[in-house]
Amino acid sequence: MSFKVGDFVFVLDDDLSGEITSISNAVITILTEDGFELDFNSKELIKQEKTNALNQNVFKNSSFQNVVSEKESKKRKQVTKKPKERYEPTFEVDLHIHHLTNSSRGMSNHEMLNLQLDTAKRQLEFAIHKRMQKMVFIHGVGEGVLKMELGYLFGRYNVKYYEANYQKYGLGATEVYIYQN
Fold first, then answer.
1. How far lies 108's CA from each of 27, 147, 153, in Å?
2. How many CB atoms lie within 10 A of CB 23?
3. Which residues pair with 179 in a beta bridge?
4. What does the pLDDT read at residue 120?
5. What pLDDT is stored for residue 78 in this prediction?
6. Which residues, 6 or more positions from 1, have their beta carbon under 8 angstroms from its beta carbon?
7. Per-residue b/e over 106-144, b at no fewer than 16 CB within 10 Å?
8. pTM of the model
């Protein structure tokens, strides 16, 4: 697209428009409506026609309309959560043995504990890899062996762990906060 001094242009990636005051090689200087002179590449600008109807700029360039509609379609819709839900962890891992295997018949306590810990480690590494911030491990109450072993496991990672929400999980769950770099 060819530009000349005096053309009115619109900046693609910003809410700016103005009049071209100078052109030097590939750098185009525009004077904005606020009185600032700014430099842009020609690929960042679209020529516009200015009309005096109510002192507004009216854009009659179809490529401009295409760019605007494309940018508006890419805007993400924000999902609103209730204030209390914002702080609730979204990723839960249930470590009860009947959720991890079809049958625990014939498994020793040691084998069941190792299966639970391997699952916890795998899920924790998955959450770290996916850059999740919080998760909950549901371990149950029992004698506290799994809870204690989970504490040793979490100590090897850059995480903070504490009792999960009592109203939701009771005493049998641990919430993990993952520090991201």
1. 74, 18, 21
2. 15
3. none
4. 94
5. 62
6. 42, 45, 46, 47
7. eeeeeeebebbbebbeebbeebbeeebebbbbbbbeeee
8. 0.52
